[in-house]
TrEMBL record:
<dbReference type="InterPro" id="IPR023696">
    <property type="entry name" value="Ureohydrolase_dom_sf"/>
</dbReference>
<keyword id="KW-0464">Manganese</keyword>
<dbReference type="GO" id="GO:0004053">
    <property type="term" value="F:arginase activity"/>
</dbReference>
<dbReference type="InterPro" id="IPR006035">
    <property type="entry name" value="Ureohydrolase"/>
</dbReference>
<dbReference type="Pfam" id="PF00491">
    <property type="entry name" value="Arginase"/>
</dbReference>
<keyword id="KW-0378">Hydrolase</keyword>
<keyword id="KW-0479">Metal-binding</keyword>
<dbReference type="GO" id="GO:0005829">
    <property type="term" value="C:cytosol"/>
</dbReference>
<comment type="similarity">
    <text>Belongs to the arginase family.</text>
</comment>
<comment type="pathway">
    <text>Nitrogen metabolism; urea cycle; L-ornithine and urea from L-arginine: step 1/1.</text>
</comment>
<dbReference type="GO" id="GO:0006525">
    <property type="term" value="P:arginine metabolic process"/>
</dbReference>
<dbReference type="GO" id="GO:0030145">
    <property type="term" value="F:manganese ion binding"/>
</dbReference>
<protein>
    <recommendedName>
        <fullName>Arginase</fullName>
        <ecNumber>3.5.3.1</ecNumber>
    </recommendedName>
</protein>
<keyword id="KW-0056">Arginine metabolism</keyword>
<dbReference type="InterPro" id="IPR014033">
    <property type="entry name" value="Arginase"/>
</dbReference>
């Protein structure tokens, strides 16, 4: 029995610092249609409401931009993820910016409140900022602080408004009575662009980061094996894949915050497929394709679609579907 895949489409770019990420999911669909691949006609699609209109309104929350709109996105992602998981489906999330992941994680915990959740974060960035530490105010740099429930006040640089604090605290514990993810259950792959505040949080909480150099030297299979060994105590696993984890010189610069010296698409494919084959994995998310910034037409979206196909094949393999029901 194969996993029942359903696709959540979140076109929000409220959390991003550049414009165009909202077009990312559509660009991935375009990549499929360009080669006459019926992929998006095979699996049920769940397009979420569009709240990008908040970008046209005055921002009221300096250190968490568009926070009122982001709250609606967070809730929409969380509730849809929860609903799909509760009926036994496997959500593949295609999102604009990485802020979406905070809602996805909340939805997973809402569906499985008693389960211990492990997170594999494949990204160039740590995304561990909070309104108290952010240098930009862009929420796509904050989803993990929401999930960890850690504002890193020891290294506070900003004084957020009362409105910001109120909404932020509501989202930290929404759908759960405690933190959603423990630092020991968070694993980075490819993170290489972080600020001082994030570095301090990583060091103090012993958060694991498998560098690009380690991936290249040890191989993707060895890295995934080590990741899964660390997350062995976890009941379920969520994988978040930001396309900026990949080397922009090899793929393209079609993402909001490209960083050099990333993993190769072939390495990303092997990591993602091996994680998809693991029965504990319950959700995988793809984020931050931005066709407006692509210097090679739609290459980033085409690369993302190729990876999406590989993940889907892995999910549909007998190896991944064996004992999925029993694992969660």
């Amino acid at each position: 029995m194969h996993r029942k895949i359903e696709i959540i489409v979140n076109n929000s770019e409220l959390a991003a610092g550049t414009r165009g990420a909202s077009l990312g999911p559509g660009a991935i669909m375009t990549a499929a249609r360009k080669v006459h691949n019926p992929y998006f006609g095979i699996y049920p699609l769940h397009p979420l409401p569009d709240y990008n209109r908040f970008l046209d309104q005055e921002n009221e929350t300096e250190f968490a931009k568009n926070l009122k709109g982001f709250k609606l996105v967070f809730e929409s992602v969380a509730e849809t993820t929860k609903a799909l998981l509760e009926k036994g489906s496997f959500p593949l999330v295609l999102a604009g910016d990485h802020g979406s992941a905070a809602g996805t994680i909340a939805g997973i915990k809402a569906a499985f409140p008693e389960k211990r959740l492990g997170v594999v974060w494949i990204d160039a960035h740590g995304d561990l900022h909070s309104p108290y530490t952010t240098p930009s105010g862009n929420i796509h740099g904050m989803p993990l602080s929401l999930s960890l429930g850690n504002d890193n006040l020891k290294y506070q640089r900003n004084k957020p408004s009362e409105q910001t604090v109120s909404i932020w605290n509501e989202l930290k514990y929404k759908y759960t009575d405690s933190i959603k993810v423990s630092p020991s259950d968070l694993v980075f792959v490819g993170v290489r662009d972080t600020e001082l505040e994030e570095n301090q949080l990583i060091a103090e909480n012993n958060i694991t980061n498998y560098t690009v150099e380690q991936v290249r030297k040890e191989g993707a299979q060895t890295i995934v094996q080590q990741v899964l060994e660390q997350l062995e105590p976890c009941d379920i696993i969520y994988v978040s894949f930001d396309v900026d984890s990949m080397d922009p010189e090899i793929t393209s610069f079609g993402t909001g915050t490209p960083v050099g010296n990333g993993i190769f698409p072939e390495e990303a494919e092997e990591i993602l497929t091996l994680l998809a084959q693991n029965p504990k994995t319950v959700c995988i998310e793809f984020v931050e394709v931005n066709p407006c910034l692509d210097n090679k037409e739609n290459t980033m979206a085409e690369t993302a679609f190729s990876l999406l196909e590989s993940v889907t094949a892995a999910l549909n393999s007998s190896k991944s579907s064996k004992s999925v029901t029993g694992s969660i």
